[in-house]
Amino acid sequence: MTNAALTPAEARAKFRAGLRVPTSGFCAGWAQANLISLPRDHAYDFLLFAQRNPQACPVLDVTEPGETSASIFSGDLRTDLPAYRVYRDGELVDECADVTGVWRDDLVSFLVGCSFTFETALLDAGVPVRHIEAGTNVPMYRTNRECRPAGRLSGSLVVSMRPVPAELVPLAVRVTARYPAVHGAPVHVGSPGLLGLEDLDHPDFGDAVEIRPGELPVFWACGVTPQAAVMRSRPPFAIGHAPGHMAITDARDHDYLS
Amino acid sequence: MTNAALTPAEARAKFRAGLRVPTSGFCAGWAQANLISLPRDHAYDFLLFAQRNPQACPVLDVTEPGETSASIFSGDLRTDLPAYRVYRDGELVDECADVTGVWRDDLVSFLVGCSFTFETALLDAGVPVRHIEAGTNVPMYRTNRECRPAGRLSGSLVVSMRPVPAELVPLAVRVTARYPAVHGAPVHVGSPGLLGLEDLDHPDFGDAVEIRPGELPVFWACGVTPQAAVMRSRPPFAIGHAPGHMAITDARDHDYLS
Predict the structure, then answer these.
(1) Considering only the top CATH level, what class is B3-114+233-253?
(2) What's the Cα-to-Cα distance from B252 to each of A124, B15, B33, B120, B233, rounded to whole Å?
(3) Which family does the similarity line name (chains A, B) (predicted)?
(4) CB contact under 8 A, A59 and B51
């Protein structure tokens, strides 16, 4: 069975059993989500940060403190993503496949929309998605654009990049604009220097992809933005997904169609 | 000068000077907002309630504790709405034109999208708006639909109602669906009994309007929903706008066009 044909429960079982790969291309038609888990004391700051930066942080679901599943994610948030990142005082201290051992009862988990969700729609519309063709992770970059801060949280916008043939850029914008809850339309087309990005070959997260002649780099807001804010703002503890290694939810792509 | 031609600053000056009227039809092209101010200790519960009930509670702006203006509202939140409601332990204890005397430094103010914002677009599209024709307040009703609770906050959905000629219902849906941040498309068309509403002539808030032959009652989610949750959930203190007597913001209607 191809990755695209898996159900969310099947994919989560594979990840729980140890499969550790980026989730782009998995479970066609099902929404994927970024994870950020923070102590309850920091939950208001994050929810406000998300309200102030909705394109980067579209919140799909919020758990009660300590809960290990969510209304749109019936799996176990501690084991059913392919990989996690653990932060203490803003420092990345571990990347691992299971966070059961460091889980805390005061953690509020936020599931934030992920642009992998609209990739099926891009493919259906005839827009190629290079990192799926290449079987690699999407490239992600920290930009020079500041998010609006909230309480103790501040950070810069992180974007994902997909090269799009110039003539298909309007179609790519139109298709993705229909999914505002999973980052929606691009934030930028074609001039990485204006985002402070000098070298697309060395992404901050994920893998570089080829940009072919006649293609423009197109940038979408990315749900790794909360982790960039954690690294800058240094809450005492946080867990995120490993970039590109998402929570595959029980919600359908079309649940987020505007 | 007509009410529609006023700028937000001009309208706010009139309200500050004592004008106490519903704001429907004021300041064409400018967004209006519901106000709910709660102690900082209850701010997370409300922001989570809004995240879980986005059609009723689309949050446009959130202040820091004690702040009396907001990024989209350069006036004074304590004086520049036409009228306020003050709640203690969930009981309505005052309706007044100025809340300076009861203001608290720990109040976080939430500006929540208001359906008055899309009424200009409805009129432009040729959809009549009865309460503007009649010069009265929009009728609002508490329904039997429960909102998803959050922390200590729970309550039922409040809706506003506009009678729409049957042949214009699809147009009214399409026009308003383009404004998701100000309640968007209707939640219900034509069968008030299914919302638990037996008597449209006696709204819970605002004024009744005539429903003429050939018209259907069309119901939109309403930003009075937070005040219904306050009445049910009894936080120690809260301030809201008097229903229909909104904050007129410095944001344009089209800022909220999807």
Answers:
(1) alpha beta
(2) 35, 20, 12, 11, 33
(3) Belongs to the D-glutamate cyclase family.
(4) yes
